[in-house]
Amino acid sequence: PRFPVPACGGHGSLVSPLLQERSARLRRWYELMMENKEELARIITAENGKPLKEAQGEITYSASFLEWFAEEARRIYGDVIPASAKDRRVLVLKQPVGVAAIITPWNFPSAMITRKVGAALAAGCTVVVKPAEDTPLSALALGELANQAGIPAGVYNVVPCSRQQTAAVGEVLCTDPLVSKISFTGSTATGKILLKHAAGTVKRVSMELGGHAPFIVFDSANVDQAVAGALASKYRNSGQTCVCTNRFLVQKGIHDEFVEKFAKAIDKELHVGNGFDAKTTQGPLINEKAVEKVEKHIKDAVSQGASVVTGGKRHSLGKNFFEPTLLTNVTTKMLCTQEETFGPLAPVIRFETEAEAVAIANAANVGLAGYFYSQDPAQIWRVAEQLEVGMVGVNEGIISSAECPFGGVKESGLGREGSKYGIDEYLEIKYVCFGGL
């Protein structure tokens, strides 16, 4: 169930040969991903419709976690604690938790695997990956490259399943006593179900769940920068990311200017089409249900007084394609500001004071990411500390990287992924009291 636990190497070495081998194989896996970047990206585009340029970016991002954790594998440090008695020595060891079940979504079918698996393998765990039923090929392609990289058989395992089987497979992974750890990325509702299943055997659990990200633009902001950040944050992957902005809050002094420039940027820079077309920036939504949710949110908002500035309907391409949409005159009573849309819809709420904006932003029961634009240093510190989210972008609309801790607060989840903290999710701390000295 585990990679062998590394021991301190002899001959003065601080890194055991076993640990060096683990690091080298993760590094080789990273190299193979980069060598096969184009093929892996085309699999993503074929599976979920993401524009090819975005898919290529995902592969680079995905591979970066293997590179990062190949190095972090060499830095799993224990500790020596001063003992309370002369005849004792107190040690702290870090050991792998064991078999980790990895349950991943369709919107980032490669990166959501490597962000978890890179940390798990670096810690010495083996993994069972259950990819989303819509995107199993990306997980299998990673498995092929893992084999080529020399990852031992049985260390990286993939269990694809149909939509009808997914709930049952998830339950087995969460209840089987041989599984020591569950890592899940997906909706808050599904996460709560998995938590209940995992409670029976008291498994280690990390959850990256739903978001409802606010994007606040204060009067002091650089409007052009805010528009560029808004475009990137909202419409990446056609609005289908957990850290996509879901609510725009714009202060009254610059509201009209921001909306005008945002609408022009949407119409000029976003192009809906087939993901394999080089001009495409907006691919299709994942399925008909996703399109219907966007339509429902727009219809509800308009019925309560919201105005469609641009977009607002299915694209002429048909099927699951939807126009990038901007709404104004939006209130906090509308569905689009109460729940995550997960689509190309940008609702704008006008606010008057900083306190009002922070209150609206924090009213959600989730807290994954939040963004705001301001040129006031005092305001930046205040708002960054007050926002009830796990990640804050200040004058930035894209904030994810392998070096940074990814995760949320409230009902957005438990634990962190990536960064030096991500490997801790797959390690147990063992206290050893060495007496009789």
Automatic annotation (TrEMBL):
Record has Ribonucleoprotein as a keyword = no
Q: Which InterPro entries match?
A: Ald_DH/histidinol_DH (IPR016161), Ald_DH_C (IPR016163), Ald_DH_CS_CYS (IPR016160), Ald_DH_N (IPR016162), Aldehyde_DH_dom (IPR015590), Aldehyde_DH_Superfamily (IPR050740), Succ_semiAld_DH (IPR010102)
Catalyses which reaction(s): succinate semialdehyde + NAD(+) + H2O = succinate + NADH + 2 H(+)
Domain Aldehyde dehydrogenase, residue spans = 19-432
> What is known about its subunit structure?
Homotetramer.
Q: What does this protein do?
A: Catalyzes one step in the degradation of the inhibitory neurotransmitter gamma-aminobutyric acid (GABA).
Q: What family does the database annotate?
A: Belongs to the aldehyde dehydrogenase family.
Q: Identify this protein by name.
A: Succinate-semialdehyde dehydrogenase
Q: Per UniProt, what is the name of the gene that codes for the protein in this document?
A: ALDH5A1
